[in-house]
């Protein structure tokens, strides 16, 4: 139901407080209000001087070096610093380059600009804007200026996002799946560990490929949206221009426009189209939904979110796109570091995230899990996807020895094996896993068990 503004602000503030405080949820979904010790003290964090000798030329991964103009760390999540970016590594000689760039921190609960640079909390993700378009390390199909360096701070395997993206690519229905590669990152000569270089989710010919020309007609307007807890609190956010709410849905969560915003009339047309899609989905009428929504992409995104048991599925990084005159597509799966055994409800392999026990479920998924016809479609699709899951897990095992040297160097820098390296991850993916192999083996085992239980759960709710 629609909430009054004061209640909305209060509720959103409470959710933000939970996210920022590090309050850990119990597997049952209830708030245990437990604030575990990180287990990290200054002597636990490996200093630069004690790092093993590392020659970028021998690395199985390319190396990216960032040198800020003032020689100081990147501590702001909103203000860009001028810097230079260099790529090196003998195996990647054809990619060697140095470019001017701008860089800032990125992330919400994961970004900590105040932590000492020797503290693991300072292993932040970054947003970079190059001075010219480059096909950086061959990621994606064409050149671009906008990239992200993702720290994998809560995912020591550095393969949770990869697992979802690899499976999504095989599915072939989701219009945009980010391209990426792994890198070793240095900032001002300081080795920061293993990262992933990822395309930024944006409208572009080789990314979210839509026509976003201004239109005030709900039947033709194209757009890229994110359903987001923080959409109303971003810099420059304005209701009716950069974000909007949908009648009848919880206004704690904004529908934030990520494509170019022209004026209030275009935003009104986007809002009207989303309202029509929302009403069709929540009508429970399959025909009405299929007329406005790309059902194949919708079903596959549901499977990806539920297989990973992503606790963020209902509150952030939930993207959708629509090309001019086309159907609404769920797109750009993103940010699975908290999924697959890591945090909150994802610690267990049973149940559905869409049921909303201990997390905010997405209203569309929550409703459709009560519709046997929808769950039957999901069940039939899961039979087709099963070989793709097996292939994806085989690929994860294949990548393990390739990434292990970089992962072990990341451990040498930060001491992340067998310790409580952050307040968020569960003990089962922190203190109990004492090597990179154990982190990857846990991930594979968790997904295998989850796939079996998800199949049974879906079958029980189908026709």
Summarize the structure in words:
The chain contains 8 helices and 14 strands. With 463 residues, the protein is an alpha+beta fold. Strands 3-4-5-6-7-9-8 form a 7-stranded mixed beta barrel. Strands 11-12-10-13-14 form a 5-stranded antiparallel beta sheet. It is globular, with a radius of gyration of 22 Å. It starts with a helix and ends with a helix. 43% of the residues are buried. The model is unreliable at 1-54 (pLDDT under 50).
Oligomer: single chain
Counted by DSSP, the helix tally is 8
**Structural class, judged by helices and strands?**
alpha+beta
Strand order of the largest sheet: 3-4-5-6-7-9-8
Mean pLDDT: 87
Task: Note the beta-strand portion.
Answer: 15-25%
* Radius of gyration, whole Å: 22 Å
Largest sheet: number of strands, sense, barrel closure: 7 strands, mixed, barrel
Shape: globular
The succession of helices and strands, N to C, reads HEEEEEEEHEEEEEHHHEEHHH
Total beta strand runs: 14
Q: In terms of per-residue confidence, which ranges show pLDDT below 50 for 5 or more consecutive residues?
A: 1-54
Helix content: 25-40%
- Termini gap: 29 Å
Explain briefly what this protein structure is.
It is built from eight helices and 14 strands. The protein has 463 residues and is α+β, with helices and mostly antiparallel strands.
């Amino acid at each position: 139901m629609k909430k009054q503004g004061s209640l909305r602000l209060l509720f959103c503030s409470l959710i933000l407080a939970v996210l920022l405080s590090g309050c850990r949820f119990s597997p049952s979904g209830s708030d245990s209000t437990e604030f575990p010790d990180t287990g990290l003290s200054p002597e636990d964090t490996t200093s630069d001087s004690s790092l093993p000798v590392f020659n970028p030329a021998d690395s199985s991964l390319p190396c990216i070096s960032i040198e800020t103009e003032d020689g100081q760390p990147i501590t702001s999540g909103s203000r860009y610093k001028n810097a230079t970016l260099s790529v090196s590594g003998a195996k990647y000689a054809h990619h060697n380059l140095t470019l001017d760039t701008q860089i800032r921190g990125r992330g919400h609960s994961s970004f900590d600009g105040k932590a000492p640079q020797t503290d693991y909390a300072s292993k932040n993700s970054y947003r970079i804007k190059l001075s010219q378009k480059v096909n950086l390390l061959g990621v994606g199909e064409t050149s671009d200026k906008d990239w992200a360096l993702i720290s994998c701070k809560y995912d020591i395997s550095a393969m949770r996002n990869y697992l979802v993206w690899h499976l999504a690519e095989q599915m072939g229905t989701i219009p945009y799946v980010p391209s990426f590669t792994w890198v070793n990152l240095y900032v001002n000569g300081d080795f920061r560990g293993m990262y992933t270089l990822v395309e930024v989710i944006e409208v572009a010919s080789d990314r979210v490929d839509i026509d976003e020309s201004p239109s005030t007609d709900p039947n033709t307007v194209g757009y890229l949206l994110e359903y987001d807890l923080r959409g109303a609190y971003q810099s420059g956010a304005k209701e009716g221009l950069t974000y909007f709410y949908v009648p009848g849905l919880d206004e704690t969560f904004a529908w934030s426009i990520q494509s170019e915003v022209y004026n209030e009339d275009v935003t009104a047309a986007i809002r009207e189209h989303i309202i029509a899609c929302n009403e069709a989905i929540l009508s429970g009428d399959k025909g009405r939904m299929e007329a406005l929504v790309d059902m194949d992409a919708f079903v596959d995104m549901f499977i990806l979110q539920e297989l990973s048991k992503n606790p963020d599925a209902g509150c952030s990084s939930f993207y959708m796109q629509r090309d001019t005159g086309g159907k609404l597509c769920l797109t750009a799966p993103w940010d699975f570091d908290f999924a697959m055994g890591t945090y909150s409800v994802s610690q267990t392999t049973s149940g559905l995230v869409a049921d909303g026990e201990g997390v905010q479920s997405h209203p569309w998924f929550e409703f459709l899990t009560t519709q046997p016809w929808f769950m039957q479609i999901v069940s039939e699709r899961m039979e087709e996807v099963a070989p793709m899951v097996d292939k994806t897990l085989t690929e994860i095992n294949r990548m393990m020895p390739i990434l292990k040297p970089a992962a072990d160097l990341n451990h040498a820098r930060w001491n992340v094996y067998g310790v409580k390296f952050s307040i968020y991850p569960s003990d089962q993916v922190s203190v109990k896993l004492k090597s990179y192999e154990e982190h990857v083996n846990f991930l594979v085992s968790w997904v295998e068990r989850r796939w079996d239980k998800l199949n049974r759960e879906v079958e029980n709710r189908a026709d």
